[in-house]
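Journal club side-thread
Mid-discussion, someone asked how the predicted structure for our own chain would compare to the paper's figures. Pasting it here so we can look after the session.
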Amino acid sequence: MEPNRDYHIWKIIELFYKALLSFRAVRERYEAKLAASVARTGLPRDRLELDPNELAGLFEFRKLEELRNRYLYALKEYCHEIFRGHETTDLFDRYVSDIFHEVSILKEELYNVEHYAPVWAQAAAQREFESIMEEAGRMFPQKVRHLDFLFSRAQERLEGLLGRFRDRKVVIRSLFLNRYGFVAQCYPDGLIGFYQRMYPETGPVEGYDRVGTSFLTGGFYTHAVEAFEEGLKFARTLPEKNSPAVERIVHQMENSLAEARAALESSKATGVSAREARAP
């Protein structure tokens, strides 16, 4: 796989999970605002009658715009490039396209409520005003539920694809380097959650070993030491009896850690830079 394609696969992973986190924040705000209105009025959600400001306040337009323009648009283009052939495409590409389309509709409907509903209200154009409000009141919960479903299915499909990228240099290095950033927010156990899905046979120890070895062979000794140390720390949390494959990986990491530490010390002693700034 050529370097650009490798990089584009990483961007698909990065952009999807950032879009997912962004949508979760949008959905949480929506649910919190509705819950507050229910508590204030004592009415069930399906009987709420919100004014334009309250209805528009269920979302932040700039957040929907960011979700669409900053994450989903580029994600959609990368997916077309990686997954789409002359006559077929992967389900993940299909889900991403549908998500982009649904967010676009939701954004436009919110714009109508924010900008056109007040205009019709001031003009005493009751029919036009009610049309906008009724459509938005019906569409908002439908779109949120459908987007929740689409993101869930897209995540499930992407998780099924992660194993294909388990030895892609840019992918595994970038995941590790972002382990304290957005990667930490994607699963309750962050990077380990990715490794469990990428290496289902041997688990996270293989993930740490592969990325550490990649950094070591590339001359990124500090990152290699970090990866091996974190991998061995994780290994110590496992039950005493592991599979022979896992035991071999752990033993291999112990040897590789010693090699990486020696290489790092040598580079410091000779004044040769250990290329950390150029990873991945």
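Post-session note: The longest helix spans residues 3-41.
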